[in-house]
Amino acid sequence: MCEVQKRGTLAVVICSDAFHHLACAQARVRGIAGLSLVVIPHPVTGISAEQLQARAALALPQILAIAGNHTA
Amino acid sequence: MTTVAEWLSEPGAGLEVEDDFDEINTQYLARGWTDGLPVVPPTRRRIEDMLGYCDRPWNAPVATIAPNDSPATPLRIAVNAVMAGCRPEYFPVIVTAIEAMCEPAFNLNAIQSTTHLCAPLVIVNGPIAKELGINSGYNAFGPGKHANATIGRAIRLALINIGGAVPEVGDMATLGSPAKYSYCVAENESANPWQPLQVERGHPAWSSAVTVMGLECPHNVHDRESSDAEGILTTIAGTMANTGANDMYYAAHPLVVLCPEHATTIAHSGWNKARIKQFLFERARLPMYLFSKENIERRFRTGFSGRYATAGMDAPVLMVQRPEHIVVIVVGGAGKHSACFPTFGETVPITRTINTRDGKLARSIHEFRSSARGQDDLHIG
Question: Quick one: closest CA in A to B71, which residue?
């Protein structure tokens, strides 16, 4: 995602809260300290379709907000 | 031109601590620079001694270690090797192992930061393994031998301190594993009826090499009754097949370690390594009904739709995708205990020969000694 961002295309990473720190560190190491991160509750795997939809519902407005604020 | 001594004398290059073992270890532990065990203080003299067995420029990176992608210079690696308690002559093995695990195909970034409990295993082959006394016999994966314990620990400390595999920060392993303290072994070549690993992987018998693999801890295979290849390998295949491994979801390259007694029995049956691998490939399978309905639906029917989309519940699930993906070596002392090592999944074994700086195969570890190279000080390259 950092490489996509570096090429000028908006990239948004969705991560669960348990991995927020790692995602921030990885973005920093790869040269995009300000990479847009959308954080949702952990876990993402092993949950029901309804639980997954609820996480998507949390993520979507965050993604749209980031996209709305993005200037190419 | 700067020497290591001059560089270490610069402000901020080192840590000024009272010359006291306990105080140094308190400081290091507080900074998160250890594996939790006491370390040998990396003083300037000890670092210089360690670099006395390095024929590369001490400040030129040999690799970058994920997940932080930090440069692994011989100096930085040497600090960790000293902390681990290594003898200087171990250093070329450590450098070669780090180079190997930083090759992209090994996928160190994922191995370091995954929730899986895998760790890089270092397998050493060739005359240098014997020269350094790396244990390949009794309790080879366990404690008791200095080379195994400290080479493996040096690599772990480098993965933490250079690579950033700090628990909860860069190492997200749900459970972790004892193999993350130290994971280094030599192949028992004298008890191996077939080619040793580095020869099988294309290198001369007189070469020394390091093979790294991203693996779980050993899973024991006790079989004292089987009297031929088919019997022993049936027991091993049964151990390889387990529903909790990552192997069946990837093109995994699992490791099978044969103890000398099992290897001898298999060889007396007239089997070579290719036949062993073919047999294990065909037998290390589980019927789909042994998996949970969610795994069947999501991981097999959806993830591998070409193979399992409409497969019946008795359909065999392959643990290994190709026979040649299975790595077979011989390790251990007397007894009838072999072992299987499931993998992280998305990783392949990497073998690197131990070479001198000019790219030639090293015949002895002492070719790396600075005095043997006519170099008594440590300069920038």
Answer: A29
